[in-house]
Amino acid sequence: ANLAVFRSDLEDFQVLEFTGIQFQTFNVAKAEATGFELETEAALTDTLLGNLSVTYSDAKYPDDCDTQDMTDPAFNANAANLCGADLTNAPEWVVTGGATYENQFFNMDFFANANFRYESERRTSTQPTEIGSSVLLPGDIQDANTKLNLRIGLATLDERWAVELWGRNVTDEQTKNVTFNIPLRGGNANRARGQFTQDPATYGVTLRTKF
Length: 211
Prior knowledge:
Layout: E1 2-18, E2 23-43, E3 48-60, H1 77-80, E4 93-105, E5 108-119, E6 122-123, E7 141-142, E8 145-156, E9 161-168, E10 176-181, E11 193-197, E12 202-209
Antiparallel strand pairs: 1-2, 2-3, 3-4, 4-5, 5-8, 6-7, 8-9, 9-12, 10-11
């Protein structure tokens, strides 16, 4: 088992924002993250390995994240609007775990693995609200979700060749990666929004060989 406790204070944190037309970058004076990580791994039997990890992270822009005055020529409304908000795609809780079975059958190595990833809800856009207002942007929260991956394989004892069958996100959880404004469509409290989604259920076969 490994345990780590962390506190990170970041200065001039660079943010990449998608405007619906292009990507643009700007710096925020302060960002911070506090939390812990616990990783565990165990040989449950001679042929079965298990692992479980838990991460808690309070990652946010502090209320005073941008100290520039509005009258300052260097004032950036995009940066100031982030103060007090959570970082994008930074869930408070992430839990991962899995198990791997390994054995020999008919003079071949066999393995089977199952692993999962749980995350609590997270914010998916760069800006939490309309610039300079308290109007929340719609569709900005990805709900808590769990994804499951499976893999089985056979290999010769000399590792000359191997075949694996695998599936990722086998329950086909539909989750958002990034949400953003659609330009010229709607206004405050009626903003048109778009989103990029993460990978759906994916299946495949992998063949490996050594020369």
